[in-house]
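Render this sequence as a predicted structure.
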Amino acid sequence: MTKVKTMELYKTILKDYPDVLTAEEMCQALGINIRTGYKLLKDNKIESLFIGNKYRIPKIHILAYLKVGLLPA
């Protein structure tokens, strides 16, 4: 995938969300409940950062989970 195409996808998918999401925002964006969201994070199915006692999820990792081709598997 070309760099231009990748940037287009990044700007259009989840465009209404910040570049780094909270667990709650991630769940809202994916349409899943919070328990399922935390399970995905704890099982490292979606990469995240744990800052203090909160998860922070870069949008690009959510897109990678959705397999839109932004990060190598």
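Summary. The two ends are 14 Å apart (CA to CA). The chain has a mean pLDDT of 85.
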